[in-house]
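User: Some background: our group keeps a shared notebook of sequences we're curious about, and every so often someone picks one and asks for a predicted structure to add to the entry. Today it's my turn. The entry only has the sequence so far, pasted here. Could you supply the structure so I can complete it?
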Amino acid sequence: MRRIYLKYFDSAVDFSGEDPYRYYHICCQDILFCMKTIPFQRDSGKNQVMVDCTGDKVSVYSTCAYCRHCRGIRVGNRVAPTPQVRALTDLRQRGAADEVMMEAALMFNTLVRDGSAVECDDDKNEGYMRLY
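Assistant: Of course. Here's the predicted structure to add to the notebook entry:
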């Protein structure tokens, strides 16, 4: 099976059990094209960003940020991975402090401010599932 290598930032995460290259994801072509792209619906008067999730409108800041299905934010032509997943991995491996989780949440909010859509891998329409 043909592999596609996507490079994000300068992180080294071993996703598929292969040699740890400096790539965030090493994924098959099937996984790459099965994610949903859900566009943002912005309400500038209330300073809210909403998306349609299983028929309901939910807030990106409070729901998608802590959902297990969220894979990243589309900023322009690029998909930035969710910072909370990276911080959670650091927390499990190195015992990082709570400040790391707060910085990840702030980075997610910055990505949402600059982004246009959320990448979601909820193919079964299960809806929100807690990340931690």
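Suggested note for the entry: The helical segments are 29-33, 83-94, 98-114. Residues 1-33 form one domain.
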